[in-house]
Amino acid sequence: MRRIFIIVALLSLVVTFLLGYYFSINWYVLFAAVLVVSFMGFYDMVQTKHSIRRIYPVFGRLRYVMEELRPKIYQYFVESDIDGRPLNRIDRSTIYQRAKQDNDTMPFGTQLDVYAPGYEWICHSIAPKGFNTLEHNPRVLFGNKDCKQPYDGSILNISAMSYGSLSSNAVEAMNGGAKIGGFAHNTGEGGLSDFHLKQGGDLIWQIGTGYFGCRDEQGNFSPGLFAKKAQIPNVKMIEIKISQGAKPGHGGILPAAKNTPEVAKIRHITPGITVESPPYHTAFSSPRELVQFIKHLRDLSGGKPIGFKLCIGHKSEFIAICKAMISQDTYPDFITVDGGEGGTGAAPQEFSNYVGAPLLDGLAFVEDVLCGLNIRHHIKIIASGKIMTGFHIARAAALGADACNCARAMMLAVGCIQALICNTNRCPTGVATQDPKLTKGLVVEDKRERVANFHKNTVKTFVELMGAAGLSGMQDITRSHVYRRVSLTAMFTFEEIFPSVKRGAFLDGKVPQKYNADFSFASEDRWGIHTVGSWSDDNTKEKVEIAQTASDGII
């Protein structure tokens, strides 16, 4: 190919030059084009980084063009309505339709394989509730015995997405939608910006491991800066981010291209460099210190609801946090449970694909432990991780969620087309970019209405699902209302898959055998990491004996 290219390039240059010289100067335009392509090809042959380009000059570049086009071609011409990833076309279309107030009904029946393992459904009632008799704007009150400023929140809110990861226009549109619809907007760990405050919507300020917006010059937590911002009226709750589902155990990543001077000023960092948040908090180093930090933030904020967000990993570590809560009689006002299927703008693929418990497993576990220890009444649970429809809210509620957060659905409502280039600063819709040439395409006044519409119509559909099931509201749904098919001939309720726990069932030494090892390892004075215990219900006698030996200080 190299030899052929050299011969063709030289002949083309000679022929086009002679045509221009003897016949018409217009041929020189073609000569110039051939000259440019020839230089590209000769450069390809001498460069050393790309083998394909060295072997196939110019033509080898088509590989990168096709790689760029592949996701778009696949999304628009190849994938079926139910095959798209991370979000399939049916769900994406539903979000767009509800955001635009278009017809969101479906013709000709479901495209899902209702006999395939994993298919889920909610049980309807022969005596459904009339939709007009139900509360179409269900709310949940956040705030326990120590909270001085409880927050009356929606059951569906905007999940954590930082300014910097998202554009200023996207942040403004989301917050404007939250203002119109009366729901909350989580800032993400990137800190409070003017764009979060401009529209006047309710905010959940997230504090991550980088303490952006409330950090000193060394990157440590600054009580003074936190207190000043936490008392802003728009800030209704504060969330400590311990981990997130898309990259648990890995700090947040802000690519250098998105770290503009404006972003850097808000975060108190150096602009123009890739910023990786630490994977751990420096403000606390044990479950006991985490609970003390919660109390500290509540005092600094003037008594606003304080909670934390995590994706479940080692079960013993969450149990240790619960032990610390009980011993100090101090509880978070809410816990956000994120699932391993959660989204992010940038994460190593190993973390996105293979780290962290999925939402349903983590959610059921958190609900069971809080109920078993009889501390559930102090704490509201928020579910986060691929919440897109009313059914997803109902499914999470059946496992114990009091409310849900969604991120990618809100991105779609604000204009995202799932181009899958969030980490490149080249988002074509101006949502996940800091490039002003792209962000100007996102009109805040239009997109904030779409965010509010999506929220209203999704909550409405959830309420209608409750009515169809014969339930008055979110508080009535149980694990027995949702079914999952596990084979062609077998289906189980969530109650059978995730058996619920009665309040106080773990007290007085009545910890179930499957949790024995994890309770034995859990210590409020350290983050205990161990290798026994699993997500299955089958904890062997040997594992329990090992855990008991370890708790006695023998190993």
From TrEMBL:
Belongs to the glutamate synthase family. It comes from the Bacteria. The chain crosses the membrane at residues 5-23, 29-46. GO terms for molecular function: oxidoreductase activity. The lineage of its organism: Bacteria, Pseudomonadati, Bacteroidota, Chitinophagia, Chitinophagales. The keyword Glycosyltransferase does not apply. InterPro entries: Aldolase_TIM (IPR013785), GltB (IPR024188), Glu_synthdom (IPR002932), YerD (IPR027283). PANTHER family: ARCHAEAL-TYPE GLUTAMATE SYNTHASE [NADPH] (PTHR43819). It comes from Niabella yanshanensis. This is FMN-binding glutamate synthase family protein. Gene3D superfamilies: Aldolase class I. Its EC number is 1.4.-.-. Keywords: Membrane, Oxidoreductase, Transmembrane, Transmembrane helix. It holds the Pfam family Glu_synthase. Residues 156-471 form the Glutamate synthase domain.
